[in-house]
Design goal:
Largest sheet: 8 strands, mixed
CATH topology: Fumarylacetoacetate hydrolase, domain 2
Order of helices and strands: HHEHEEEEHEHEEEHEEEE
Strand content: 25-35%
Radius of gyration: 18 Å
Oligomer: single chain
CATH architecture: Alpha-Beta Complex
CATH class: Alpha Beta
Number of strands: 13
Distance between the termini: 48 Å
Length: 263
């Protein structure tokens, strides 16, 4: 890895550890270099990889970023939280997306591409309601797709809610999803917003990993892509997503209590 890329890694690692935002890289780098930076950044804390997120899962989002396919990010074990959960507010901007979460039920074979949607469907052991909390670790959010990928595709936390099914069910290709933030109108969406069917998103990810000599493994969770678009969040929020009346997921964001003071 070149010196400039290592510098980006160091800045992003510090940002992930809460040591301030990273300066947006000046020197351009390729998408493959961006994924290498992402991988190094995720490996730095020494935690296991618990799953993935897929981003840019609409043609409009891809067009806006000048690309023609989705992007991926890694989620470490500590990035998963069980609903309902309360988390502390932060000084930087957060965003919320309601997402269908897919649980992988068995290891994928190494070098197995191309994989079909039916190959993916039979290896799915669970579907869950989810809310992804996204954030940029740069001090400037006017980024290229490579800079976005290097910043782990804006992945921060994944809130896991109700188990919706114990395997893939075709009805989840298009179920209504509503995202509620207290005091605001609901954001209405559908799982069909994710490449027309979130199963296609997971299939893209599995083939993308296979081409890189990697694979999905048993127990990993995949955030398949936003069913409700991006919702800007205030520093304090009460957020709930409902998946077609089949299950919900919720998270409360609040200021941390002052140390030494009773709640």
């Amino acid at each position: 890895m070149e010196t400039a890329s290592r510098d980006v890694v160091q800045r992003l690692v510090k940002a992930r550890l809460g040591e301030g935002l990273a300066a947006r890289p000046v020197a351009p780098f390729s998408l493959e270099e961006a994924y290498a930076i992402q991988s190094e950044t995720l490996a730095a804390p020494g935690e296991s990889l618990g799953g993935y997120k897929v981003g840019l899962t609409t043609s409009a989002a891809q067009h806006a970023m000048g690309t023609s396919e989705p992007i991926a990010g890694g989620l470490r074990s500590r990035d998963f939280m069980q609903s309902p959960v309360r988390i502390d507010s932060v000084s930087y901007q957060r965003f919320a997306e309601a997402e269908l979460i897919v649980e992988i039920g068995e290891d994928f074979p190494v070098g197995s591409a191309p994989l079909s949607e039916s190959d993916i469907a039979r290896r799915i052991s669970g579907l869950f309601a989810g809310i992804e909390l996204c954030a940029s670790r740069y001090d400037d959010d006017d980024v290229t797709v490579a800079q976005l990928v290097a910043d782990n595709s804006n992945a921060e936390l994944l809130i896991v809610g109700s188990r919706l099914a114990s395997g893939w069910d075709e009805r989840f290709s298009d179920i209504p999803v509503n995202l509620y933030c207290k005091g605001r109108d609901p954001v209405r969406g559908s799982t069909a917003a994710v490449l027309g069917n979130p199963l296609r998103s997971v299939t893209w990810l599995a083939n993308w990993l296979a081409r890189r000599g990697q694979r999905l493994t048993r127990g990993q969770l995949v955030a398949s892509g936003s069913a409700t678009g991006i919702t800007d969040l205030e520093s304090e929020e009460e957020i709930l997503a409902d998946f077609g009346g089949l299950g919900t997921v919720s998270v409360t964001i609040a200021r941390a209590p002052l140390k030494g003071r009773d709640e």
